[in-house]
Amino acid sequence: MKKDFRIIGFDADDTLWVNEPYYQETERHFCELLSGYGNVEDISQELFKTEIQNLELYGFGAKGFMLSMMETALRISHQQASLSTIDNILRLGKELLDKPVVLLEGVEDVLDELHKRGIKLIIATKGDLLDQQRKLAKSKIERYFHHIEIMSDKKESDYLKLLAHLDIKPEHFLMIGNSLKSDIIPVLNIGGYGLHIPYHTTWQHEKNATVENPINYREIEHISKVMEIFEE
What we know:
alpha/beta, Rossmann fold, DNA polymerase, domain 1, 2 domains, 6-stranded parallel sheet, about 10% strand, elongated
């Protein structure tokens, strides 16, 4: 992989900081709350089905997840879920929004080193605007980034718009992230470069993607390995 990139993009959730474990914890509490209406696996699948159906309407993020939990609760309870149950779902959603931002090990060291080398860094992440802005402020790493892009989706067209805004061609752009489906494959498809850092847990929607053409692509096991590319 070449190392003269003009801009390096980072995904945020589960690339820079912890995210998916919080959602899975919230989902476990939700399934326990609704345990009178089915087993955990069935309730979890009903919630996932609702999330996917609502993506186009709500987009990605904790607020859409909260609404999907409420809709799922009403559906599987045949509209019999109590006001107390709905109140508890709202509480779970608010607690999710207020989770601490925990940087993954090695993140700040890598950002600091790349920044010292004069490479422009950006964040390109999906999610709710206010929620992602809040997490970024809590992270204390905003100073490393030339540009922050909170995207409604990460399709090829979305990346092309982003790169046009940054006035950069895809062949000069490297995207780093934990999701093959969202962070890597669309960038490869438009002629950019992708560096995949798998995370130990991934949302169902982001699974089952494979890189068919490995040109311009590499996988590393930890973000600390990013600097090895520039030392080769």
